[in-house]
Each structure stands twice: as structure tokens, then as C-alpha cells.
Amino acid sequence: MTSTVSTPAATLGSQRHRRARRAALGSFVGTAIEWYDFFIYGTAAALVLGHQFFPGSSDLAGTLAAFATLAVGFVARPIGGIVMGHFGDRVGRKSMLVVSLLLMGCATVGIGLLPNYDAIGALAPILLVTLRFVQGLGVGGEWGGAVLVATENAPEGRKGLYGAAPQIGVPAGVLVANLVYLPLTAFMSEDAFNSWGWRIPFLLSSVLVLVAMWIRLGLEESDEFEAARESEQPGKLPILEVLTRHWKTVLLAGGTFIATNGIAYAYMVYVLKYGETELGFSKTAMLFLLIGSCPFWMAGMAFSAWKSDTLGRRTVYVRSSIALVIIAAAFFPLMDTAALPIMAAAMIALGFVLGCCAGPQSALFAELFPPAIRYSGASLGYQVGAILGGGLAPIVATALYASFGTSLAITGYFVLIALISLASILLLKVPTPSTRPIEQEAV
Known about the structure:
83% of the residues lie in helices and 0% in strands. It is mainly α and 443 residues long. Mean pLDDT is 83; it is low at 1-7 and 437-443. The longest helix has 46 residues, at 2-47.
């Protein structure tokens, strides 16, 4: 009798754990590939897009123009988050993850095939901006869906750890993107790289997207989402409820992400250009530094996400944000030593602390909103922080250095946004296990 009763329960538990692991894997792989697509554009903007699509201008003007097209993707991200959040709350998470992946993949391959300014004139930068906008739409809907698939399927008490899977996909995408660029910059002549070599990472995306699509089509909706959909009819416009009833939460959640995203984009994109033009290092040397720091970035995410399940999201987030203020003040002075071991230590330290800030974010953002509006709310909060942080950071850093002629101006900017994010997490009402929206909805 005992074995007859316990076996189905054990089997059910095993199936749930397998589904949780599959959801985490699908979120990680898909997110890594989407962010690979998004980041190869940032690397290309720092290295080559300026003179390919904005010729006839100074190096500074070309770089600023290329970074401006980078920012276009961030403008599109909230739109993608709103649209896919709406359908993700009403129809399901899985379908929107497939749509976001298709948008990103098609736009990325399109950029790899796009003729430059010399070939088609002014149409080239127009098409570049358009495709970058489509990339932004895709990645705008990606994060919220990937996070919810991972956290809603996670075992109780491990939502922080499982929610780190799509977060770790971000530096994994950076790592793969730069590993692809590294042999191209190291072994190709500069003329060959500028002519056609830079297109290879964009075209490679077609293969990676097919792999991610195969994994994502096998995902299932979580029991939590299905139960919420059966127990309550989703509103016609989930985003409207988010903006009318939860707008303070959205703004503060976005504020917690401004520094993490802004400093990360300067660290991933602007520092490549800074090291080459101001410190005199080769593209290859700077790519090596970034690649070497990425595993520490990922380790910081996993560590802080794990600790957030025991210490609490707020505690881990606050401690990490304080550490980010400190490293933000020290980063460029360390880089300006132009000593490779010190520069490597600065990159590793910043990467690890950025990871610690990002680790608890998935579970935190998911827990801020009830299931019926969770995709919309979490996506919008994330994208508010992204557009105010990452979208502006490379442009601001370039302009500040051009205006003041010293990296101290960039350091001041880093510290300022790190303090804004610290203040935001201190002001944000983070749910405790007894007050989380899912439980409120069940009352």
C-alpha cells in the first residue's frame, strides 16, 4: 500500500524537477544566444560600424554615431517588453520567447548581410537603425519571459538560484560574442576585418538561433501560471494595470537596474574603445581582458542568487549595490595605470560585483507582481532601467571624456548612477515570503 501511494508522488516530484531543470536550461541557452546577438552589435559599434556606415566624419563623430545606433535598441526594448508582456500574460510565456528569438535572429542576420554606406549610400545607416530597432523589440520581450519560465518552474526556496539561469545567459552571450571576435581581430588583417570579417559573428547567429529554437519549443508553461490563468481572467490590458496600480514599483525596480546595466555596457562596449584609443592597447588585448572577466561575472550572479534564497533578496541586493559604488569609484583609476595585471584585476572585480547585483534580480522582479500582470510588470521595470542605464552609458562616457579629457568625469558618472540604484533598492518595498503577490492573489 505504501509503495503504491508513494511512487506516483515520487514520480511527480521527479517530473517537476526535470521540468524545472529544462526550463532553466532553456532560459539560459535562449537568453545567451539572444544577448550574443545584442552584444556583437555593441562590439561592432566600438570597433568598426562608425566608418562602415557613417563615413566622412571624424573618429569621435563616427564613434558617437555608432553608439547612438546602439541606443536605438534600448529605445525599442520597452516597446518589446510591453507588447510581449501583454501577450505573455494573456497567452503564455513560451510563445513570446519563440517570437522574441525569431525577431532577434532575423534582425541580426540582416545586419550581417547589410551593404555599407559606400555601396548604397544613406540607405545603409537607415536600414542599420531599423534592424537595430527590431533587435531591441526582440530582446525587450526576452528577459521577462525567460525569467518567469525559470522562476515559476523552480522548486520552492530555490527561485533565486534557478532565476539566475537567464541572468547568467547575459555574460555567457558576451563571452561567446567576444570569443567569436577574438580570432577575427587577431588573425585577420585590419582591411579584411573592416571589409567583411566583422560580418561573420552576425551570420553565425542563424545557426545559434536554430539551436535555441529547438530547445524552446520543448518548454512547458508552469503550474503557477496555469493555475493563475484558470483562477482569474487576465485583464484586457495588463500593462494598464501595471501603470495605474504598480507604477512606483516599476520605477523603483527600474532604478535598481540603472547602474548594473549602465556600468555593464560601458564595461563591455566603451572600455574596448577606451583601451584602444586612449591607453594604446590592441583590440585583441582588450578583448582578452573582457573575456577573462566574464567567468567572474557569471560566478557573481550564481553566488548572489544562491545567497538571496537564504539571506533574502533585499539584503544581498543592498550589499552588492554598496560594493558597486566602491568599485565604480576605483575602476577607471585602476585602468588608467595601463598595467595589464592591474587592468585585469579591475575588470574581474567589476565583473564579479556587477554579477552580484544582477543575481537576485530575476526572483526579485518576479516577486514584485502578481502572476496575471507579472510578465508586463517585470519586463517594464527591467527595460526602464535598461534604457536609462545601458542605452545611454557608452554615449555619455564617450561625450564626458571628449569634454573633460579625463576618465575622472566617467568615474563621477559611474558613482552617481550606482548611488541612484542603491537608493532605489532601499526605497523599494521588497515582498517577504508572507506578502508576495502570488500569495496575496490566493487569499
